[in-house]
Amino acid sequence: MTTNEQQAPLAPKDSPYLFDLSKTNLPIDEVFDRYLPVPREQCGNSVPISDTKEEGYSSIFQNSFSPGNVKEALAKEFLTVHSSISTMLKFHLDKQCLGVRKYDHDYHTLADEYSYITYREMNEQKINLGSGLLYLLQHNPFKDSSKYRSHEKIDRHHLDFDKYDEKDLSFILTIFGPNRPEWVISDVMCASFSITNTALYDTLGPDSSLFILSETESPVVVASKNHIHSLIDLKAKHPEQLGNLISIVSMDPLNLKTNAADQTLVNLARKYNITLFDFEQVVHVGKMFPSLELPPRPENVFTISYTSGTSGSKPKGVVLTHKNAASGILLLSMKNPKNKVKRGFSFLPLAHIFEREFVCLYLIHGYTVGYPRHGGTPLTLIDDLKRFKPTQMANVPRILTKFESALKSATFKAKSPIVSKLYTHIINSKIEWQSEYDGATGTHAFYDKVFISKLRKGLGFDNMETLITGSAPISPSTIKFLRAALNIGIMQGYGLTESFAGFCASNPFDKDPGSCGPTYPTTEIRVKEIPEMGYTANDPQGARGELLLRGPQIFRGYFNNEEETSKALDSDGWFHTGDIALISKDHGRLYIIDRVKSFFKLAQGEYITPEKVENQYLSNNPILTQCYVYGNSLHHYLVAVIGVDVHGIKKFLVSHCGLKHEAVSKLSGELVLENLIKKENRVKLIQYLNKHVPHLQGFERIQNVYIEFEPLTADRQLLTPTTKIKRPFCAKFFKSQLENMYEEGPIGHRSRI
């Protein structure tokens, strides 16, 4: 045992907490600085628990840090989101907290640089927002407590807040807007005033938004200005279903003195029994009528996170308590890199629990949190990163594969043979060095300072130390390339809404990337065999089957949906994820293979894992921007719907299809596509794409394609908020195109199997 381990104020192994802070006189922030993250040697594996193997199931696996016991929180002072943030607030009061590039709504101009509020200012806004919101709701002229239960809960909130639990919730506040400081302040306000919240997001569509607002009986929505008219319109069309909705708070300013449109909006809201205030007005009311915070208990529901999933069924509300959140905070804290500068960029939708888990981490550990610009998109991400310069960011594989493609175009495939040869040598050398042992960073003073730094600056990664990826599988080759090319660690995590996002994560510099790491002390795991697909607990590489989860981080039910709850949770408390996993025999690390329902079989019996195939095409072909692979048991080959980069395709038409550069450069996007979809050019494109996926077997390679510039969009309801493909929707939307491809037949040359 090292000196640090001897001094660490660890709680007993059988305690539900990581630390016992009564054992030390050190300030809590110093305890965290000294003893977090927990060393890889102590928690880098999971182990089978003896005598837990049953027929049809693997043994139960727990983290090697505390086998035989699961942990619930960092310490007894960190049992809720409110207590976690409040406990650490005094250490961060004057640090920069939330940052954004200010947008002038009158002149539609965007500031060049980020502006910040401190932790002290964030906390003051939070308290005033909660005080003002409760006052305005309790004095709302449209409140009818005799008719609506949520209105009665508003009246009784100060009396009942300390009695709430999973079965008896507060009234529910809804948040609807892009990532921005007001979103987070509203969220932590709810946590501090024992108000359960939920979130809407753009890709839901009006029907799902109506369903969520109706099911939750939400009386108030905090929304960005661009969503307010649609919310009023929704109530106008469904006055009975949305009778509970009586207040909207605009995240953006409303100028009632000089802006006639804003005054009209307020009047329109009032016409349908909705009061409309802006954020600053509510904060001002809170200053005039202050309220004490109303701290929640661990059993209180922190949020109801609705997930439409990839199957496209009716949204399910995942009920997540403060206890679930405290466990998620513990997991991330045990993995949180020891950075001198702490700057986290919040890019993934806050309506999704993955990003909210990270924002909780950031606020507890004193990060400066930056947000995308007003109206930001993946295309404007790089410019924001260059200005904010984060040290840490969570993102999804589809964005990271775009980074990979852009970097490969600038290095391996650079126009200059000298540049190409030089960067190929440097990056391949670093890949080799980083593969020598777990934790090898492959640092090279000269290469990193002179060459790698240029690539980092090009993406705004000047200070970046760690990327976290989740939501979908990512190719190990992508991780290896990005780690080497950018000199950063990459942690691949895995989790679901039902597990309060990630419960496991790989190490930033794993020798052999590809796993999601071990399960952490908050969650125990096992797999259920699927023998008909060849997945058994006795596989030589490790147990394979459907992944099951249990522990304090795992939800205990869907909101008002006993039928789906009973399908997901068995009588022993195991959550059946629907994901196929391997728990490796050597280190007990988790590998996600695919969704149970995503697998499909070709006519000759070969099983296809579509996400694996799609990721290979995207990470190895820069001209691709999107890829949806399809197959079925009636055909022996795969087809695909692909999105292409217009500039890359212009170059392809010149280099591979015989078109003249002068002619192609003048073509509109429509005419570029018209040339590309000619059969002879599609044949060449398929051959080109297949040439660059050497790791795929012959039957995994696509043999026909349907092409658009952006076929998979949220507007078409084909992507989830974290850009996962909604496969049943895609199969339905592209039904005629898929049928046409199979009718035309395989136009690519099949590789030998």
From TrEMBL:
Read off the InterPro entries from this record: AMP-dep_synth/lig_dom, ANL_N_sf
Please list the residue ranges annotated as the AMP-dependent synthetase/ligase domain. Answer: 175-559
GO terms for CC?
endoplasmic reticulum; membrane
Q: Recorded GO terms, molecular function?
A: ATP binding; long-chain fatty acid-CoA ligase activity
**A UniProt-annotated Pfam family:** AMP-binding
Keywords carried by this UniProt record: ATP-binding, Nucleotide-binding
Put simply, this protein is called Acetyl-CoA synthetase-like protein
